[in-house]
Amino acid sequence: MFLVIWTVALVAAAVLYLKRTYTLFSRHGVKQFSPLPVIGDMAKVTLKMEHFADQIARMYNAYPEERFVGRYEFTNPMLLVRDTELLKKITVKDFEHFLDHRVLIDEKVDPMFGRNLFSLKGQEWKDMRSTLSPAFTSSKIKLMIPFMVEVGEQMIQALKKKVTDSKVGYIDVDCKDLTTRYANDVVASCAFGLKVDSMTHEKNDFYAMGKRASTFNFRQMLKFFAFASFPKIMKVLKVSLFTDDIKYFFRNLVKTTMDDREANNIIRPDMINILMEVKKGKLSHEEKSTKDVDAGFATVEESVVGKKEVNREWADDDLVAQAVLFFIAGFETVSSAMSFLLHEIAVNPDVQERLYQEIMDNEAKNGGKFDYNSIQQMVYLDMVVSGKGSWSLVCQFLKSTEINFLMEERKQ
Fold first, then answer.
1. What is the superkingdom listed in this entry's lineage (predicted)?
2. 132-347 adopts what CATH topology?
3. 272 in Cβ contact with 193 (< 8 Å)
4. What is the DSSP string of 269-319?
């Protein structure tokens, strides 16, 4: 009898909890969709019946007259902001209230993910942002261009060899695989100081580990579901996003590389060197009295938030976390962007021909030299890459605790 009573009580409590959770927006007069229990509005995405970007586009267009609409990621309420003025307030005027990303993984359980820039909060985020911002200025990117060119030439040589070995004068290429391997080798060189040839040595350890770390299969999706819906339980169970061998590989790679460079006084203008400067407190902001004429569309202007001088020591796990973030953030995004770009120039042969001609003219003008300055001279290349932006993946940055701020906006 007691078992029946407890069962009924628990079921009733669960129903009341879910009802209150999934009526948050409607209770405040905000348009929302029809979430399912526990899974919210993520059913089609979780079952891979709909891409996340397509879901966001569908929801965005569902209520064209609304400034923002509500949606639920599992049991977490999320706002989809449509109003440009409100977006300006969030990202500029009232940015101080929106510094934090939603943290899914506890730093004590998995410091390699929990201590990266996207996971840090408050003052720690400000300090790390200020510490790392000098790493992404035009002068630093300029020093890394030769590494990218080297990887490109390496890829071309590997493709030429495969064409020759085919005996038929051509090969079929999976463009996504091609761009993924190129991105892998670029990040390996620019971030970790490694020379990797993933086109020739297709199963090298760095590519294999990187693929595992950045590929979110069904098991990873279940973990994210649990992290998003039951963070306290996941913390108690000490569930990590990455397996132990992946964590060991990247932590060991960063630490041994830094130790080797320290012992042998090796200086290479890459991410590892930047992290070593961070550790020593030697990475500083560039003081510019005039605009950098060499700065292109891919570089950033440091904000006031990122210009504060920071005097604090960072632990090794903090540095490893930033290196791994650099890899994860660059691995899939760069390869996807390049794949979309290849698709666009393939279906638009006139664009392809004009771009090809500009590249050849630029090569002839610069004596075959392909560097940072020659890239800045290619105006049409800039236009093509910027035009590809219509394919950009959806970015999400609001956390659920910020909803109250936006609810007040509805009243204004």
1. Eukaryota
2. Cytochrome p450 (1.10.630)
3. yes
4. SSHHHHHHHHHHT---PPP-SS--TT--TTS-PPPGGGG--------HHHH
Residues 188 and 158: their CA atoms lie apart, in Å, by: 17
Give the model confidence (pLDDT) of 221-279 as tens digits.
Answer: 778 778 877 777 888 888 887 888 888 898 899 889 988 898 888 888 888 888 888 87
**Predicted structure pTM score:** 0.75
pLDDT at 405 over 50: no
Can you tell me the distance from the alpha carbon of 317 to that of 220, in angstroms, rounded to the nearest whole number?
23
- Separation CA 358–CA 116 (nearest Å): 40
Residue 217's pLDDT is 73
Average pLDDT, the chain: 82
Distance in angstroms (rounded) separating the CA atoms of residues 161 and 112 = 38
Q: Which residues contact 331 (CB under 8 A, 6 or more apart)?
A: 180, 183, 184, 187, 210, 214
Domain with CATH 1.10.630.10 in the chain: 132-347
pLDDT at 198: 92
